[in-house]
Design goal:
about 350 residues, alpha/beta, Aspartate Aminotransferase, domain 1, Aspartate Aminotransferase, domain 2, 2 domains, 7-stranded mixed sheet, 4-stranded mixed sheet, 12 helices, 13 strands, binds pyridoxal-5'-phosphate
């Protein structure tokens, strides 16, 4: 039928992964009203599941209605005052986006740049400004496949708030909000949580909440208002906006699938698949892009040999084998591939299939 897509892809790009089967089931469940007690209970349970995956006891943990970028905006717009010094680590597209968002909030942005493919030394972030309000960094840089260290930032942050982008890390590699001293963290549903794009899990501790603006510049992302409807609220709920009910059902199911498996087991599955893929690519003659010791298992970046028509190879992988992988961004467009192995897609069988398919199309 026209307009109905039935193609069954293996999503190994840097964007969304294949949803967990429990998520697909949740997406077709009958709709509840956004104030139905059954839905409110499901929402509360979803927030509790997010707490467990963020590894936090924070009272405020909730899904922002919007993609990962909405989580980023919500994280900054609620705590940044005009003139605040905000230190931002930039070693890829998403650190760059953080600078843009912070600057639109009126911050004095202090950039700490590092070459793409390299991790940012925590000492450089800690020493970038004598008294920053916020130190912000992307945990898993999806544009390069690099993991930036977080724990040392929490230990050395002083009076600053530590704000972390966990869009590609949450559910895929160790992310310890409380233990690492992260004050604000946000994520996205479409990566290692195995849910379609559309929600941004977010959490703030009491330290960050005590510095929240009373009237942030965004009404939609105002956590004071959202918090009265969801997350930390108990008792009566005040309508703020109509919750994307179906997506919350999906996140409830995706977070449930991760927790049923066991969070640490899910990290281990990503690790196994990442090593298998990275070893397999090296055996095929590819050179990995990201700094050794800081390579993400869930997002592998690899140089494309100069003689290869990389777009044609990606297109053949898609049409002949139904496997999507991603190209490079910025100056690495046409020179690099980014291969995701996230959420439900992170399975040995998918890695084996991709390596065989690559051999076939090469
Ligand atoms: N941060 C990181 C690390 C990301 O990988 C992405 C998206 O890929 C985002 C932020 C923005 O998320 P979204 O595209 O869902 O708005």
């Amino acid at each position: 039928m026209q307009g109905v897509i039935r193609t069954d892809r293996i999503l190994m790009g840097p964007g969304p992964c294949n949803p967990y089967p429990e998520v697909t089931e949740a997406l077709v469940r009958p709709m509840l009203g956004h104030l139905d007690p059954e839905f409110i209970a499901l929402l509360d349970e979803t927030c509790e599941r997010l707490r467990l995956i963020f590894r936090t006891d924070n009272a405020l943990a909730l899904p922002i209605s919007g993609t990962g970028s909405a989580g980023m905006e919500a994280a900054f717009v609620n705590v940044v005052r005009p003139g605040d010094a905000v230190v931002v680590g930039v070693n890829g597209v998403f650190g760059e986006r953080m600078c843009e968002v912070a600057s639109r909030c009126g911050a004095e942005v202090v950039r700490v740049d590092e070459a793409w493919g390299q991790a940012i030394e925590p000492e450089r972030l800690l020493g970038a400004h004598p008294d920053p309000s916020i130190i912000a960094v992307v945990h898993a840089e999806t544009s390069t496949g690099v993991r930036n260290d977080i724990a040392a930032l929490g230990a050395g942050k002083g009076e600053a708030l530590l704000l972390v982008d966990g869009v590609t890390s949450m559910g895929g590699i160790e992310l310890e909000v409380d233990r690492w001293g992260v004050d604000i963290a946000y994520s996205g549903t479409q990566k290692c949580l195995g849910v379609p794009p559309g929600l941004a899990p977010l959490t703030l501790n009491e330290r960050a909440r005590s510095r929240m603006l009373e009237r942030p510049r965004s009404w939609y992302l105002d956590l004071n208002l959202i918090g009265r409807y969801t997350g930390s609220a108990t008792g009566a709920r005040t309508y703020h906006h109509t919750a994307p009910i179906t997506m919350i059902q999906a996140l409830h199911a995706g977070a449930g699938a991760v927790l049923d498996e066991g969070l640490e087991q899910a990290w281990e599955r990503h690790r196994t698949c990442g090593s298998l893929l990275q070893d397999g690519l090296e055996k095929l003659g590819f050179t990995l892009f990201a700094q050794e010791g800081h390579r993400l298992p869930q997002l592998t970046s690899v140089w494309v040999p100069e003689h290869l028509d990389e777009a044609a190879v990606r297109s053949r992988l898609l049409t002949r084998h139904g496997i999507e992988i991603g190209g490079g961004l910025g100056e690495f467009a046409g020179r690099m591939w980014r291969i995701g192995c996230m959420g439900h897609t992170a399975r040995v069988r998918n890695v084996t299939l991709l390596l065989a398919a690559l051999e076939d199309v090469l």
